[in-house]
Amino acid sequence: MNHSGTPPLRIEKSEFEQRVSACRAMLAEQGLDAVIVNAGASLHYFAGIPWTPTERLVALVIPASGRPRMVCPHFEVGSLRDCIMIDVDLLTWEEDVPPCIVALDAFLAGAKVGLDPEFSFRFVSGFKDARPDLRFGSAESVIDPMRAQKSSSEISLIQHAMSLTLRVHEAVFHALKPGLTASAICRMIDEQHVAFGAPQGSYFCAVQFGVATAFPHGLAGDQILERDSLVLIDTGCRIAGYHSDITRTYAFGSIPDLQAEIWAIEKEAQLAAFSAAEPGAPCHAVDDAARAVLEARGLGPDYALPGLPHRTGHGVGLAIHEAPYLVRGNKTPLRAGHCGSIEPMIVVPNAFGIRLEDHFYMTEQGPEWFTRPAHDVRHPFG
């Protein structure tokens, strides 16, 4: 399957309708009468609504039978109608009405309702208080597997975002010069994302030099780039809601031999993890493979440093971190449509860190990279 061409501008309405139908089938399998989906990535997934969760309830009720119901403040109806991609009945509430009561009004006593795991405790409590005669549980076993297994359209959108961000990385690599601040490089990355076709610019950006690379999410303050430094840049964008997320670590000038050696081990671990991502293999096999390389080189073991302080990877899609997680103990089998990062970062405490992050998608035949891995520590783009 070739995902390098121009992606669809958005997911088609028919695909959203298929998702709702598939959700109903899972409800029947799991003995649920309905799921309630919170605003955020899952609402975007089922209904096409890119709505940020707030203190006001905006949610989608998908019953085992009958039309889905959209619950929202009355004053937001126009905005929601403008972006919703499925046919629903609208249930609106005014500011002086408890919205959880409105959402649950149609349920018969004893109904079993799955709640989106992304609901805040305040809403979970509100649902339970509003209808103590209902049986509530988590909808994680319905929502996560569905979102984890990407369609061809979703993979095309992720591919477009990843390819775009890799171009940004390469452009910035060639533009680096001594004296640039990390914040200036972040602004450059944001501008390049826009220039290459991501209208909202960077979704996030982390730029770290030298010792700061030893901290997976950096240090406070605005660093200044000096010659003969290690550079770590982690950034991404969104295309139609779908994320890219790529990290490159490389030499700006000369670096000590130890840093170059650890870089080579990092790449070896990344490639070993990719090779372990076989169809049907448990997610933890990817993490196991990366750690085996590190331990064979005297790093670790487990989460000990110098070594890998976190999981090897995470899923990606409408959320930048989502299921499936490539971590010890996760027995979820890898299936066609799963997408994830491979980033077995190596940290040498208070000295430096190396992270190479690329993502793959699973096919029936095995894993495929969204982006080509880094070439070498001095010429990461070949």
UniProtKB/TrEMBL annotation:
Pfam families attached to this UniProt entry: Creatinase_N (PF01321), Peptidase_M24 (PF00557)
Highest taxon, organism lineage: Bacteria
Residue stretches making up the Creatinase N-terminal domain: 19-148
Gene3D superfamilies hit by this protein: Creatinase/methionine aminopeptidase superfamily, Creatinase/prolidase N-terminal domain
Annotated Peptidase M24 domain residues: 157-364
Keywords: Hydrolase, Metal-binding, Metalloprotease, Protease
Keyword Iron attributed: no
Family the UniProt entry places it in: Belongs to the peptidase M24B family.
Record protein name field: X-Pro dipeptidase
